[in-house]
Amino acid sequence: MENEDVPLMEDWLKKTYILEWYVHPDDWLHEIKERRGEFCFIRHFITMIGRKPVGFCQYYRCSDAMEDWYGDISLDGAFSIDYLIGEEEYLGKGYGKATVLHLTETVFSLQDAKRILVQPDPENQASCRTLMACGFTYDEKNKLFYKVNPFGTVPAVSPGEVLKTGIPGHKVHG
Questions:
Q1: Cα–Cα distance between 96 and 34 in angstroms, integer?
Q2: Residue 26 belongs to what domain range?
Q3: Which of 60, 68, 83, 160 has its CA 20 to 30 A from that of 144?
């Protein structure tokens, strides 16, 4: 994500269908603007279809975020992700799923990544279905979705290579 992407995020975060789930847009923008400072542990990306920016995604190590929604799950090797499709014409066409799959592959290429934990609003059925379609499992006890790294903790490729490779017609740039 570059500085010129921030106004685009501001526009996306004002959209009604996004505000429903990203209820504190100023907090999100603060994190993005402080991505080289206070929030340098979060990796932010803009999702591109060809040359068109269509969405946003990020990942971070859970232990760095100091959040309290993980339940009794070990934070050793745990990461979390967030994602959105900012352009309405790309909703419901599989781009959210492609973004989550790509982001999951990127996180699991990190040497110490053991699992990804995600806690979308339970009412956000589109996000919950996307996670299930991407192989995440719902943990009823902890009220979150998780996916275990199928590769163990040894990277197959570097995260940079995963991000450069992308999905045909679908790229993510950081």
A1: 25
A2: 3-160
A3: 160
